[in-house]
Amino acid sequence: MSFTKLSRRGFVQILAAASAASSIPSWLSASTKIPARWDESVDVVIVGSGFAGLAAAYEAKKVGASVVILEKMRVAGGNSAINGGILAVPGSPLQKKLGIKDSPKLMMQDMIKAGNAMNHPEKVRALCNAALATYQWTVDELGVQYQDKNIKQEGGHTVPRSLFTINGSGSEIVNKELAALARLGVKPRLRTIMDEIIVNDAGRVVGVKVREGYRFPDKNSGKVKYIAARRGLVLCYGGFSADAQFRQIYDPKLTSKFDTTNQPGATSEGWRAAMSIGAHVIQADQIQILPQTSPDEKGFGIGFAWSGHVSMFGVWVDGTTGKRFVNELANRKVRSLAILERLNQGHECLAIGDAGTAASFAEIRPGMLKRQLERGVVFEFKTLDELAAKFRIPADALKQTIAEMNKSVETGKDPVGRPVNAKARKLETGPWYVARMSPKIHHCMGGLYTNEKAQVYHVDGHLIEGLYAAGEATGGVHGAVRLGSCGTADALINGRIAGQQAAAQKPWS
Ligand SMILES: Cc1cc2nc3c(=O)[nH]c(=O)nc-3n(C[C@H](O)[C@H](O)[C@H](O)COP(=O)(O)OP(=O)(O)OC[C@H]3O[C@@H](n4cnc5c(N)ncnc54)[C@H](O)[C@@H]3O)c2cc1C
Question: Which residue range forms the structural domain that includes residue 104?
Answer without folding.
Answer: 37-286+444-504
